[in-house]
Amino acid sequence: MEKVLVLGATGNIGFTVVQKLTENGIAVRAGVSNPEKSKALWKDNTLVDVVHFDFLNATTFPYALENITKVFFVRPPQLSTPKEDMFPFLRFLKERSVAHVVFVSLIGVEKNPVTPHHKIEKEMMRLALPYTFLRPSFFMQNLNTTHREDIQEHSDLFIPAGNAKTSFIDTRDIGEIAAICLINTSEHLHQKYSITGKEAVSYDEVAERMTAILGKKITYSKPSLRRFRSTMIKRGTPKEYANVMTMLYFITQMGNAKKVTTTANELLKREPTSIDRYINDYRTSFL
């Protein structure tokens, strides 16, 4: 019987992957950092078993991959260097001869060799793993996770993106696309999909739409990259993660986040989720 290992199964994308796979009758092993805490999420779903998994602890690999045919993973943003924290796992996948590995990378990654995602993609190709790379644009859900505190407490988007536009995508759409790829492996092997929402909008426009939908004034303060980075570190964000975020917003300022593709539409066979629908769905997070 086919069984898929979903790593980061409690995350924004992974949770949807588990949901969509099991809706299609596919058994899932959810690899998580805290199994006891996470088991309750799927207590009524007999197709899911939950195991402890840690990219930095190779002793968690064998059990997680026992009887597994396919794997989905996202790189945890708090990790430091791919060579040390991700490559041992990739080599283990090679030894296990899995049939398909879906990795959530980054839009524009092919032109950005300094990103960890670029290095992971390159290593997966070097190892000749049977890959599909999903290269999404910025997640809409960054607003209700990373930036929620500023929206809730200061009614402000504290984001250093200047006047640039971003083709936001909903993580629920990414999760659904990942499941589609895993279910129909032969159609999606060795594909590199750049996936975006249906439009590119500036953060000024996001603030306007949030104001209209939430019924409270949301501003966009446009901090400098330096101020953003130092503020995030002061708040307790790990330095590596703050650096990655700052680099991504620098890329945005350069105009590299505005690309819109029709790929999500083609894979989902419907329009991707709009920013308005997303704001409405997550309104309680912002208020």
Could you tell me the mean pLDDT? 94
Q: Helical proportion?
A: 40-55%
Structural class: alpha/beta
H/I helix tally: 15
What's the total count of β strands? 11
Overall spatial form: globular
Radius of gyration: 19 Å
Distance between the termini: 45 Å
| Strand order of the biggest β-sheet | 3-2-1-4-5-6-9
Q: Report the uncertain regions.
A: none
Strand content: 15-25%
Mind summarizing the main beta sheet?
7 strands, parallel
The H/E string reads EHEHEHEHHEHEHEEHHEEHEHHHHH
Written account of the structure:
The relative contact order is 0.14. The chain starts with a strand and ends with a helix. The strands form three sheets. The chain has a seven-stranded parallel β-sheet, with helices on both faces. It has a two-stranded parallel sheet with strand order 7-11. The model has no long low-confidence stretch (mean pLDDT 94). It has helices spanning 12-23, 35-38, 61-64, 82-85, 87-96, 116-126, 148-154, 171-183, 185-188, 203-214, 225-234, 239-253, 263-268, 275-281, 283-286; strands at residues 3-7, 27-32, 48-52, 70-74, 100-104, 131-136, 156-157, 165-166, 191-195, 201-202, 219-220. Helix 10 (203-214) crosses helix 14 (275-281). The chain is built from 15 helices and eleven strands. With 287 residues, the protein is of the alpha/beta class.
